[in-house]
Amino acid sequence: MEHSLEKRFPLHAKDYELYEEVGEGVSASVYRALCIPLNEIVAIKVLDLEKCNNDLDGIRREVQTMSLIGHPNLLQAHCSFAAGHNLWVVMPYMAGGSCLHIIKTSYPEGFDEPVIATLLHEVLKALVYLHAHGHIHRDIKAGNILLDSNGSVKVADFGVSASMFDTGDRQRSRNTFVGTPCWMAPEVMQQLHGYDFKADIWSFGITALELAHGHAPFSKYPPMKVLLMTLQNAPPGLDYERDKRFSKSFKELVATCLVKDPKKRPSSEKLLKHHFFKHARPTDYLARTILDGLAPLGDRFRMLKAKEADLLMQNKALYEDKEQLSQKEYIRGISAWNFNLEDLKSQAALIQDDDIPNAEELQMDKKQNNRSDDFEVPAEGLSAVEPNHSDAALTLDTEDGFNNLQDLESSLASFPIKPLQALKGCFDTCEDDVNNTSPRDDNESSGPSSSLPQNVINQNKKFLSGSLLPDNFLSPKKVVTDGDRDYLQTKYSSQRNHSGPLLLRHKRDTNNLPSVDDTSEGAIVQRKGRFKVTSADPMGPSNCNFGPAVGGPSSPPNHKSMAASVLPPLQCILQNNTLQREEIIKLIKYAEQSCAKNTELTEAGAVDLSQVPAVETKERELNFQVIQLQQSIGSLVEELQKQRMKNVQLEKQLRSMGNKIEK
Ligand SMILES: Nc1ncnc2c1ncn2[C@@H]1O[C@H](COP(=O)(O)OP(=O)(O)OP(=O)(O)O)[C@@H](O)[C@H]1O
Fold this sequence. Notes:
Residues 633-660 form a coiled coil. It is built from 20 helices and 15 strands.
């Protein structure tokens, strides 16, 4: 493959002298090199074909795309050839490196707006070109935006790009799952209706946030959590306190891109006309600002690698179990994902113990409600069980950002099996896991929750209050800060704050609670933080009662009666916690038993060959169930964490009320 008309780049390794390594991706290392006959510095991406033998198609696609494209904002390969068991792709050397490198070494808090506008403008021009030529890039992110020393910007990495014309029938929607989770559009994760070039617009919006904050939203979370958060939460945006520095037009641009319904996202062409790009400057501005004074790319790369290695060493000491997910893979944003119960536990353990929402999350949660209509959970994704929350006096306030159990059920339902399939290739999902999902494929219309045992679902529905997780279920965490990202690690001390017995046991009138938030909301009698207590419904199981309403909004406040009235429901919540905890343990046991049965069946199949087809079917079914349960447990654990936090807050509130009463 040769492209340059003026220059013919040689097709033999001996004609190149490799210098230092300047980049590393999942599948390749990139070196600065000299093309000896032409006396020109180039970059050479070296792909180990033996390691990539599963993805030769991907490589072929990347090289093909790199050779066909011709736009000043796209990195075009000079040539490529095989060298031993490697493939060498020779390309222009981009001495500034990737935006991610620059952020990590010099701008951990993100770039200023004129820089962002300039970068995004160049990237968008590349996208307009790609889309007009029927390509979806599928991996737009700061790591794939390269800068030359003069500030010129090129989008790289066509490793996952796809042609919408691949099938020859001008297919407009893809049905494969590629990309990096933080930047991945919800429809790509969901895989319900395929996706098209609008997936790049979502990634473009996420990249805008990455450039603005120094990291992509959710980048500190493990991949499965990212998937869940992207699907469940409102789209991220520039709504945080620290985002005050950004213009309205920038905020609008991001919001326009990060709409969950792809149909509502603008095309790249339309986006290019957005008034935000009036702030874009000529690219030499980038050379004068962010590139000025930077160390040579090779040195920066070495420094980053050393920092990464340091972090790994620190983490190694904390991770004795070899099967723990590699922090290095988190750093890259890509995880070797073995989807099993242990992983779920590890993943859950990596989620911040307190799960106290930071300003960022609070803002996002708030937006979730405002913008949740952006995206509908598809009908087939709804739970087979009708959610019924009428028995809950403590409602999880979606207004204030809590997902309620309905969300949990629908998340289980709307997150059935496709994402798991989809993880294949992206996270090296184990082949078996993927294959085992086939029964779901065969019958997508059956309610995705249907394989979750009915009794489990029904029982779950009862419990809307907080949780007490077993001590060993989630470990406390330590946050290790690495520049722009926080990595959460387990640590081996126990500081958990479980809800304890209540000390105050008075009956009070719920209507007289001191911080009645809004009389217009009638049913809401208490609001604290992100939740509210309602008086409309009895609390959970029938043995939990609110006291009869005495007085009303106009009655003078009576702290003693208030405390008494709130105590029984709180006690009830605590009881429910215990029940919920038992429920979780049951779920785990169920999953483990299914696994054990599964193994037994496999062994039996090996002995009696006549039983093989039946055993295989059973095995698939069981595997399928186990996977679904594992997903359910993951979601339940998340929900329980939230509930536990609520309980802690309720207790605090109760204590302060107690104090008031004593005074
Ligand atoms: N032409 C180039 N000039 C300078 N640096 C480059 C060049 N191409 C790539 N790099 C650097 O090498 C890194 C890895 O390259 P690339 O993204 O192509 O590999 P990959 O295996 O496809 O990565 P991934 O799949 O993780 O995005 C880039 O992030 C960038 O920092």
